[in-house]
Specification:
The chain is an alpha/beta fold. It is built from 17 helices and 13 strands. The chain binds adenosine-5'-diphosphate and magnesium ion.
Length: 444
């Protein structure tokens, strides 16, 4: 077919590049150029850009070409790349692979799936899916994972753009199913070259048995989790929303981080867990929530948000806070996104961050009373507690948190080994040396 150039505007002609010549070239000219290239020692030329590759395979010129782009964040793009790889394998010999030009060969990259597991995914290439493979119409998919030219685009004829849009949408829906290799996992969000990076973390193992909290706290947690559990469908039906925010407050060492781990472990598998580090909370919260769109139900953990969202009286321009509020408000329009924040001091947070619609539930973990302290001693002493009156020892530990009691037991074991008396334990508790070791601001 002889492709006629688009009707020329009476304005300045664009610069003449090899690409512009090729677009307008007849088959004879292309053949002549190819022969020239071969004579000069090159392999027969692949098309020098995804656009030209698509023009050639779809039989249109650049004016007749449409591009349907995905404008999401990096991990979402890699995950779409993994589906591209799946479809390439499915259609085997029928697909045609081209390079992105610039002298680059088609390139495969790796998606990290945790220790020892990697998935090979197309990272820089353009692929033709002929008619009857991905869609009734022929489509080309271009993927580029380089930070500065990041792209996932479906190229089609203008007439077939609806088909391209349908394929992109179906790809995005498939990411919310088991076809997404990161779904249901524990992911750690950090910043890498200014963008959010989601790395696979080990599964969280924690259960309620190991965490000693007052019963009314557990009752509140259960109400919060009902939106993700047995009340989910009812909430949806009534239009009450299934995306919720929980803020866990309390002094250092009372078990806030531990509680978040327990909740994340209970939701594991059904929910993807994203643990945000301080940098990603501070600089890329919007991008972090944009990543959640590729996972279906997700729990976002913002541990120690007071480090990032401290209320700055009169300081005015708090960009992080504004981004954070916008991200949380946006999430409430969506389904199945749980946000769990922790803070040592809820008063240090800007009141706007706490407003009811942002964190639906604020749970304050109090320092344990005497009865809970006795249970905490029992929890950490295990069999070493036999024969010790834990209630009496607990009374000497007024003001101690769970972390403090764990430390008291640790010191007692370090000093006395496996066998110590109640008096030994009380001496350690009274000594107060454990106080300096309060665990502060530990990350998950
Ligand atoms: N109520 C509790 N029950 C059991 N262990 C606790 C409790 N509170 C704190 N701990 C233990 O103390 C340590 C610090 O707890 P953490 O959850 O990091 O405290 P926070 O996040 O409130 O500062 C952890 O090892 C945790 O298991
Ligand atoms: Mg903590």
């Amino acid at each position: 077919m002889t492709a006629s150039p688009p009707p020329a505007e009476p304005t300045e002609p664009g610069p003449t590049t090899i690409e512009s010549i090729l677009v307008a070239a007849s088959d004879e000219t292309r053949a002549a150029l190819r022969t020239l290239g071969e004579l000069l020692g090159n392999a027969p030329t692949a098309c020098p850009s995804p656009t030209l590759f698509a023009c050639r395979h779809l039989g249109v010129d650049t004016v007749g070409l449409a591009s349907t782009k995905f404008n999401g964040p990096g991990t979402a793009l890699s995950l779409l790349g993994s589906l591209l790889g799946t479809e390439m394998a499915r259609h085997g010999e029928r697909v045609v692979v081209g390079s992105l030009g610039e002298g680059l060969p088609p390139t495969w990259g790796q998606l990290d799936l945790g220790p020892g597991a990697k998935l090979s995914i197309p990272s820089r290439m353009v692929v033709l899916f002929p008619a009857g493979t991905l869609a009734a119409a022929p489509l080309c998919i271009a993927v580029d994972d380089r930070n500065w030219s990041r792209e996932f685009a479906i190229l089609s004829t203008v007439a077939d753009k609806p088909a391209a849009e349908g394929v992109l949408e179906s790809f995005r829906d498939r990411l919310k199913t088991g076809e997404n290799p990161l779904r249901g996992r524990v992911l750690e969000a950090s910043l890498c070259d200014g963008s959010v990076r989601l790395g696979v973390a080990p599964p969280i193992e924690a259960d309620r048995g190991g965490l000693i909290l007052p019963d009314d706290v557990w009752a509140e947690i259960d109400i919060f989790l009902a939106a993700a559990g047995h009340r989910r469908d009812l909430m949806r039906r009534l239009g009450l929303g299934t995306s919720r925010g929980l803020l866990v407050a309390g002094p250092p060492g009372v078990g806030k981080t531990h509680l978040v781990r327990v909740i994340a472990a209970e939701l594991a598998g059904r929910f993807t867990t994203i643990l945000a580090d301080a940098n990603s909370m501070r600089h890329a919260i919007a991008e972090l929530y944009a990543e959640t769109e590729s996972f279906g139900p997700t729990v976002v953990v913002l541990d120690d948000i007071d480090l990032v969202l401290a209320h700055r009286d009169g300081s005015g321009n708090n960009g992080t806070l504004a981004d954070f509020l916008a991200a949380l408000d946006g999430v409430h329009q969506r389904e199945d996104i749980l946000t769990i924040g922790t803070t040592n001091d809820p008063k240090s947070l800007d009141p706007a961050a706490q407003r009811a619609s942002r964190f639906d539930v604020v749970i304050t973990l109090p320092p344990p009373d005497a009865a809970l302290r006795a249970r905490l001693l029992g929890r950490y002493l295990g069999p070493l507690g036999a024969g010790i009156d834990l209630v009496t020892v607990a009374e000497t530990l007024d003001g101690a948190t769970g972390a403090d009691i764990k430390e008291v037991v640790r010191r007692a074991v370090l000093e006395h080994g496996e066998s110590f008396s109640q008096a030994d334990l009380v001496r350690v508790a009274d000594g107060g040396r454990w106080k300096a070791n309060v665990v502060r601001r530990r990350y998950l």
